[in-house]
Design brief:
InterPro entries: Aldolase_TIM, GH, GH114_TIM-barrel. Keywords: Signal. This is Endo alpha-1,4 polygalactosaminidase. It is a single chain. By secondary structure, this protein is an alpha/beta fold. The protein is 27% helix and 19% strand. Helix 3 runs parallel beside helix 4.
Length: 273
């Protein structure tokens, strides 16, 4: 999310242990019937080291000379995606899957019962990700939108609610179940999908996701935890907000991360490694 540090957790080791030993308090244990949508194209597999642009503030500025763009799925049109494709770019669709946003056109599709605590961003509230049968069709429609606009991949945001004060007793197991469902929804539509942050669950999720998106792993000395993606030949798209490039770019190059410095608003400005 824009400025992920706002909801970072301190007890990552505890959460990792919860993946292995925690019991689920899930309100719903089934993701519902499998979707009937069939992929119409091969899933794109971004390789480690690909340069990228990440712009979530408004319509895309296509001036960055990079092969990958990650842009807001609602705020950009099929024509915007087609323009990037004509320039030889791959395009990732940013979609929030872990929080309700009062400024999205489908805001009324979310029942009040699944809305939790504010997450620190104006107009946003955490979702009860245990409610799979409620949330799955909403997320399917959002991913349908990404596919219809021609996107190549999806960046699902806020997939680590279990480590935050959501207003719901979410467990690591609940999060694994939800994240795997999100990955399946993308793949059913022929879209590749990235794991956003959620470092403690990388060992359990790396086989389900096609790349990773990370914020501030250098600031928190966590970049090595993303190595399973690189070892699997999958890109890690990484940004820092406050660390100077002199402090993280050498390590990023060693780890084969796709790293750059961005402002937290995620406009067009970028300073790559």
């Amino acid at each position: 999310m824009r400025g992920r540090a706002a909801v970072r957790v301190a007890l990552l080791t505890v959460l990792t242990a919860a993946v292995l030993t925690g019991c689920s308090g899930s309100a719903e244990r089934s993701a519902g019937p499998p979707a009937t949508t069939s992929p119409s194209r091969a899933v794109w597999q971004p390789r480690p080291g690909l340069a990228w642009q990440w712009q979530l503030d408004g319509r895309v500025d296509a001036s960055a000379d990079v092969p990958v763009y990650d842009i807001d799925g609602f705020e950009n049109s099929a024509a915007d995606v087609a323009r990037l494709h004509r320039a030889g770019k791959k395009v990732i669709c940013y979609v929030n899957v872990g929080a309700w946003e009062d400024f999205r056109p489908d805001r009324d599709a979310f029942p009040h019962a699944v809305l939790g605590e504010p997450n620190g961003w104006a107009g946003e509230r955490w979702l009860d990700i245990r409610r799979l049968t409620v949330l799955r069709p909403i997320m399917e429609r959002r991913f349908d939108m990404c596919r219809a606009k021609g996107f190549d991949a999806v960046e699902p945001d806020l997939v680590e609610g279990y480590g935050n004060d959501t207003g719901f007793p979410l467990t690591a197991r609940d999060q694994l179940r939800y994240n795997r469902m999100i990955a399946a929804i993308a793949h059913e539509r022929g879209l590749s999908v990235g794991l956003k942050n959620d470092l403690p669950q990388i060992p359990q999720l790396v086989d389900h996701f096609d790349f990773a998106v990370n914020e501030e792993c250098a600031q928190y000395d966590e970049c090595g935890e993303l190595s399973p993606f690189i070892a699997a030949g999958k890109a890690v798209f990484h940004v820092e907000y406050t660390e100077p490039r002199s402090r993280f770019c050498a390590e990023s190059r060693r780890l084969k991360l796709s790293s750059m410095l961005k402002e937290p608003e995620l406009g067009a400005w970028r300073r790559p490694c």
